[in-house]
Amino acid sequence: MKERVKSWLLALLVLGSLIESYYLIYRLPGSDSAVMSETLYVKADNMGPEEKVENLLYPNKMIIHMGDGKHKLFYPSSTFYSLIFNRLKGRSFESFQRRAVQDFDWEKIRSENPGIELSFGSGIPVTLLQRVMQLSPDSLFERESIDRIWIYNIKNDSKAHVIFFSTRGDIVYEAAKADLTVQDVQQHVELGQNLTSYTSVMGKYYVPEAKIPLVEATLPSAFYTIEQMQSNLFFDAGSTRYIPEKDGSEIYTDSKRSLQVDRERNWMSYSDPAALPAGESTPAMDALEAVDFVNQHGGWNGTYRLAATEEGRQERKVSFQQYYGSYPNGSYPIISKPQLQYGTIHVELQQGTVSHYERSLMYVDNTKAVKKIVELSGGEELQNQLDQLGKVSPVEDIIPAYVPVLKEDKLQLLPVWKVTLEDDSVYTLN
């Protein structure tokens, strides 16, 4: 009798243990617990290929100063841009001497001296630039970020001059030793002689003397699913809870991290406020960390360029700009509009650790693009348009770009002039 009672007690204990294990494994704590299911867990798939940081570091434009006030502009992936930049990446630059910007007559150099000017937008840290160019910086130059490189010849001077512009605006660094000859610079300047010439306006921006052709494209589009994003961002995608928001957006959270989805703009925003800081942080280290994070959490659904490493009060924001186009015709940035966020990836870091991540949920099929050639305005017509915008604030820069327009299941990329004013506002023409 005692043995039978012991057997029943043992059976009850085993059953109780199994029930408890079930709740521990398959239930979340709290009243809003969700049952885990294999159907809710999507294996993390590669939404786009990984990318090396070296492939994200390149100038947003190349200005060829031909002398006599004539200029040419080349853009990424175009024939002469690729030829010149690949050659420059194989040259060495060293013995950097620090000088004041005011030491040079830049207007005279721009209009009279044959040369090549590489524009890096908001700037690239020197330690990153070393990955694509052969630089031998000293400890002072190594801590800088560079937004321009200007290589030029001076009449009756036997050596080429190479100037690196600090993003601080008042300092430049001249490479006293450069593996470039006067003949090298002149050879590069003479490329594209028959292409459209540009006129410099106050040394700030360049207006083409004639209309310029660009490809307009219509591409089949689709969207990454919520399950795909969860599997790429959460350790256990099946353990997330869904929280609807009043503004129509959706939030998925595992109580530590959150994924917010705006279906109207097809945009996602991921936050990890509890991420442990790595400690040491520099613009270059944060940019590398941002690239690694995107590689591991979605990949790159197109061609991108490192656009900015902006420092805030407690965080650093790293932005990547998407480009459309290819060799030999060139590629141009895709600029987001308020109604359609597409063309950028944003990563925010605190003390070297990613705390915020934003990107579009849309992707396109480049192999099925329908293309046609259109023309952007130039000459007097374009200058008149810029003069009108200049009444709002002086024009700082113009560059060909694409505006995305979603029509049913297709994405149109419409060529425009992207105009940036001194007050940082951005307008599009055409």
From TrEMBL:
Which CDD domains has this protein been placed in? YycH_N
InterPro entries in the cross-refs: YycH (IPR009996), YycH/YycI_2 (IPR042274)
Note the superkingdom of the native organism.
Bacteria
Q: Which residues cross the membrane?
A: none
Pfam family, any one: YycH
Q: Where is the Regulatory protein YycH domain?
A: 3-423
What is this protein's name? Regulatory protein YycH domain-containing protein
